[in-house]
Structure formats: structure tokens, C-alpha cells
Amino acid sequence: MTPIRLDSFDAFASIVRCGGFRAAALERGVSSSALSQTMNALEETLGIRLLNRTTRSVSPTEAGQRLLERLAPALSDIRLAVAEVDELRDTPSGTLRINAPAPAVDHVLCPLAFDFMEAYREVNIEIISDAAVIDIVEQGFDAGVRFGKQLAQDMIALPLGPALRYAIVASPGYIEKHGRPQSPLDLVRHNCIKRRFPGGTLVTWRFADGNEEMEITPTGRLMVSSAHNELQAAVAGRGIAHVFDDYAKPHIRNGGLVELLSEWSPTLPHWFLYYPSRRLPSATMRAFLDYVRAYDWEARAADRQLSILP
């Protein structure tokens, strides 16, 4: 049998994990054709088909699934061995892959990553914006960002960024035409901009004023899938939006939006950066974790405020 390159097995695992050649090629930084050639050579050497290929999907055959089940622990051990060798480096280097929802990416992770990359010039960071709850180990990420209640028990987590707050906002034009709601219950008579999570769940709006709490399901003509589009619609006067106040603040300051029901907007827990407890963090990951723990979020927020003042 022709000798098999170990990276061929890793390429095979990437294709299955990503669900196709194009996504796996992007992850690995190679062309789809090169990845296809690698798989063809592996199947030819083994003398058996490992992947079912259609125009719409790629999935492992029975033989491919069996091979993958045996390969996964071995590939994990290889990555761990490389990480242990990386421990001997004096300077952190390599690539960190982090998965996070778009709001966390926009307001917490990107500012942090930009500053970290300035401090550690040999480190690359890949940030994937994704609100779905995933297995970061299976998907090949070093860390993820989610709320605390979304974390698996075998993960180590540390707070990331300041506490969060939602804002209910509408344009001055909308308020002039439709009036200002005086309580959350009034929203059922307004055109609210609805948003759906990637998994299909409709975002509900939660409110709290002292000991009184309530939750409403927004009603309205427009539904979107991102906070950016929800905010865009509110600025255009298409309805009332429910977004993180970090998105709304610049528009509130310039008069494009007005905050409503501010006394009903509770403070929420902050994000958490999490990573697997069963994996020894690399020197680069440890440097990033130390940087997160020491990061001055209040000073960073003050700098951002100054940078957007006229």
C-alpha cells in the first residue's frame, strides 16, 4: 500500500465536520480542487469510498464513518501533542479560532482581538460569527462565546466584557405617527420588528421594573434574522426594535432613534468566553486568557465613546 500522509486523514475529518469541500477548504486555507485531490488519493490508496458526494451535500459512507470514529481520538491526541510542543515556545504564535454570536463579535470580541493582536504580533485570530449552539471541539474551535446558561458542563468559562442591556427604540418619525408606548403591554398595538434566531425560535422581549417582570412576543409586519437589520429597519421608521443598547447608542446620540420604556430594561449577565476543560490550552490560548482577565473594559468603552464624538 502506498504510504498515506497523516494530513489526508485530517482533511477527511475536516470535510465531514464542515459538511462539504468548500467550507473545509476555507477552513484549511486551500482550494476545493486541492482538497478533492487529497480525498481521491486517500480513497484510491485505501481502495474504498469514504464519502458520499452529491451536488448538495457530502456525508461519510459506512466505511468513512467507521474510520472517522477511530480517527477522532488519534487526531485529538496529535493536536494535543502539538500543543504540548507549543508550550516550549517563548513567544505565543499560531492561530486562535473563536466562535461567537454577532453582538458579542461586534462589541466585545473584535475590540479585544484587535488589541491582543497588537500586543502579540505572531498570533492570528479567526472569528466566526454564529449564534447556533455548537460543539466547539468537534467544529475545531479553540474557544467560544455564549451566555452562561448555554455552556456545557465540561467547559471552563470566564466573564467577557461588561454587563449587557437591551434597548427598545424607534425613530422620531415613527413615534410622531404612532405615539409612544407607556408600558410593555402597549407594544402589542404597535408595529414591532421581529427577529428570529438561526434555529428558528422567535426572539421574545423581556422586561423588568423592580419586582414586576413580563415577557411579550412581538407582533409586526417585518421579521429579520439579524440585529443589524432590525436596527436598520427602526432607523428607517419601519417599527419598534429590541436590540442591545451598544447597537442603539450611536443612533440615540445623533437623534436617529429614541429610547422607549428605559425603566423597563433590565441589566443582563455578560458574555462568557469558554473553552474545553479536557484540553490543555496552548501557550497562545493561555496568553489570550490572561489578556482577557486583565483587560480594562471601562477604559476601552471610554476610548470608543471619544472616538465617535464629533
UniProtKB/TrEMBL annotation:
It holds the Pfam family HTH_1. InterPro entries: LysR-type_TF_proteobact-type (IPR058163), LysR_HTH_N (IPR000847), LysR_subst-bd (IPR005119), WH-like_DNA-bd_sf (IPR036388), WH_DNA-bd_sf (IPR036390). Keywords: DNA-binding, Transcription, Transcription regulation. Gene3D superfamilies: 3.40.190.290, Winged helix-like DNA-binding domain superfamily/Winged helix DNA-binding domain. CDD domains: PBP2_CrgA_like_5. Residues 4-61 form the HTH lysR-type domain. It comes from the Bacteria. SUPFAM superfamilies: Periplasmic binding protein-like II, Winged helix' DNA-binding domain. PANTHER family: HTH-TYPE TRANSCRIPTIONAL ACTIVATOR TTDR-RELATED (PTHR30537:SF5), HTH-TYPE TRANSCRIPTIONAL REGULATOR (PTHR30537). Belongs to the LysR transcriptional regulatory family. This is LysR family transcriptional regulator. It comes from Ancylobacter oerskovii.
